[in-house]
Amino acid sequence: MLDPILAVLAVSLALWLRPWRVVGPLGPPWPWLAWCAAMPLVWGVDHYVGSVVVQPLSGATLLLLMAGWPLAVLGMLPVAVITALTAQLDWLEALHRYVWLGLVPATFALGLGALLRRWLPHHLFIYILGRGFIGTALSAAAAGWLSALLHGGPPGVDEELLMVARWLAAWGDAFLAGMLVSIFVAFRPQWLATYSDRLYLPPSSAPPPGPPPGPPPGSMSPPR
What angle do CA 108, 111, 114 make, to 5 degrees? Predict the structure, then answer.
């Protein structure tokens, strides 16, 4: 009963926060939707290829960084449904993947992000390395370990080897998220709901808050 309880609590909290108010009339940026569309491919990879996978990639931390926790929790619901349909999973297994590949690593990443903002300087590389790279690895590994402790792992896999394998698999998530986050920060920071130039760039590097100042009063414009 743990999986349904966690899912109901998280979805209820996300709905109560009403995160769609910050999206705007044009809807979410297309990379958010594109990543949600890609996530069923990795959540159900073991069924697509017909082979045991010690831990499929999650992608939840990257979605958290792009959309924020409430929208990520709601956005992963259709991901779980599509995974169940395309990978031919029963609904209990789809719920299990929603919780342990989506909800739990995203929540761990949210907590780690709060700790980084509280205890480390607000710097660009703290965000990229701390939240995009190392935070993703730790969150995915912790979710995989906790799932193995509570539910066990694939049949025929030694428990100690499973823990090592899930630690290594978590770095696949970390490399992917860290690479994309660094690209987004450099070229499309508006695609990251958890990033702000005002917060992570030093004052001398941050863009000016308003339009550039015009000529001083009384000055004449140069002839054209």
Answer: 150
What tokens does 57 get?
């990639």
Residue for token digits 């029963």? 90
- Which stretches of the chain score pLDDT less than 70? 203-224
Q: Which residues contact 125 (CB under 8 A, 6 or more apart)?
A: none
Length of the chain: 224
Q: Where are the domains of the chain?
A: 2-200
Q: What pLDDT is attached to residue 44? A: 94
Residue 219 confidence (pLDDT)? 45
- The separation between the first and the last C-alpha atoms of the chain, rounded to the nearest angstrom, is 75
Question: Using CA atoms, how far apart are residues 93 and 85, in angstroms rounded to an integer?
Answer: 12
Write down the H helix ranges in 68-134.
69-86, 91-97, 104-119, 124-125
Helix, strand, coil fractions of the chain, as percent rounded to 5: 70, 0, 30
List, for residues 110-145, the tens digit of each pLDDT value: 999 999 999 998 889 999 999 999 999 999 999 999
The number of beta carbons lying within 10 Å of the beta carbon of residue 7 is 20
47 within 8 A of 89, measured Cβ to Cβ: yes
CA distances in angstroms from 81 to 10, 35, 84, listed in the order given: 17, 15, 5
Q: H or E element: which one contains 138?
A: helix 135-151
Residue 210: per-residue pLDDT: 54
C-beta of residue 52 within 8 angstroms of C-beta of residue 157 = yes
